[in-house]
């Protein structure tokens, strides 16, 4: 018998001053048995950093993630079902990114392992023509600290200002400084 996903709930208050996006979101996360607290929390962080100000071009949604290899971790689809933004985590291979780029208006990757810079150096030359690709590295010590915030029921505040990200709970806070390995249009 297969082990089922564990359900986590997160109330996420977002104040993104860099993009003028503010709001509160209730997330239900189906955490797969093979998913770590760190990966789950990076999914929540990616949601907070990419949620649109309104739903006019579709909502940003958590997908089945690891349970479905054909879907990203998050995506924003418009009302016709077209993918506006494809968001992956970790170190996807170049074929997956090429496929995602062909299906979406924007592709973002959030790496969070020590080896992210090495992974990117190995595949960057294969992806030079992908002008709608963003690749971010979350320093692993910061992503591991973020993993300590994981609970079955969470209340998180995410503040973004001048490129810095501040995540806090009632008991603790953390500053995250993502590193842009590639921005769209580069």
Descriptive overview:
The structure is a single chain. The chain is α/β, with parallel strands linked by helices and 186 residues long. The protein has one domain: Restriction endonuclease-like alpha-beta roll fold. Helix content is 22%, strand content 39%. It is built from four helices and eleven strands, in the order ββαβββαβαβαββββ. The chain has helices at residues 37-50, 94-103, 116-123, 140-147, and strands at residues 6-16, 21-31, 59-62, 74-77, 83-89, 104-111, 133-137, 153-161, 164-168, 173-176, 179-182. The strands form two sheets. Strands 3-4-5-6-7-11 form a six-stranded mixed beta sheet. α1 crosses α4. The N and C termini lie far apart (47 Å).
Query: How are the strands ordered across the major sheet?
Result: 3-4-5-6-7-11
Beta-strand content: 35-45%
Number of helices: 4
Order of helices and strands: EEHEEEHEHEHEEEE
Query: Could you tell me the mean pLDDT?
Result: 93
- Secondary structural class: alpha/beta
How would you name the CATH homologous superfamily? Restriction endonuclease-like alpha-beta roll domain
Concise description?
With 186 residues, this protein is an alpha/beta fold. The chain is built from 4 helices and 11 strands. It has one domain: Restriction endonuclease-like alpha-beta roll domain (Restriction endonuclease-like alpha-beta roll fold), CATH 3.10.640.10.
Key traits:
single chain, 186 residues, Restriction endonuclease-like alpha-beta roll fold, 6-stranded mixed beta sheet, 5-stranded mixed beta sheet, 11 strands, Restrct_endonuc-II-like, YaeQ_sf, YaeQ, YaeQ family protein
């Amino acid at each position: 018998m297969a082990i089922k996903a564990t359900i986590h709930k997160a109330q996420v208050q977002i104040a993104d001053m860099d993009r003028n996006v503010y709001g509160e979101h209730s997330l239900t996360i189906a955490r797969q048995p093979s998913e770590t607290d760190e990966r789950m929390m990076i999914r929540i962080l990616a949601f907070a950093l990419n949620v649109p100000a309104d739903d006019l071009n579709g909502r940003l949604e958590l997908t089945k993630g690891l349970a479905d290899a054909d879907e990203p971790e998050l995506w924003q689809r418009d009302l016709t079902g077209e993918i506006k933004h494809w968001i992956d985590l970790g170190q996807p291979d170049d074929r997956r990114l090429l496929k995602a780029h062909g299906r979406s208006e924007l592709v973002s990757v959030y790496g969070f392992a020590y080896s992210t810079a090495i992974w990117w150096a190995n595949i960057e030359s294969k992806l030079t023509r992908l002008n709608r690709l963003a690749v971010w590295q979350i320093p692993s010590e910061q992503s591991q600290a973020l993993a300590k915030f994981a609970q079955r029921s969470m209340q998180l505040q995410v503040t973004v200002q001048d490129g810095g990200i501040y995540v806090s709970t009632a008991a603790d806070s953390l500053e995250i400084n993502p590193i842009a390995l590639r921005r769209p249009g580069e």
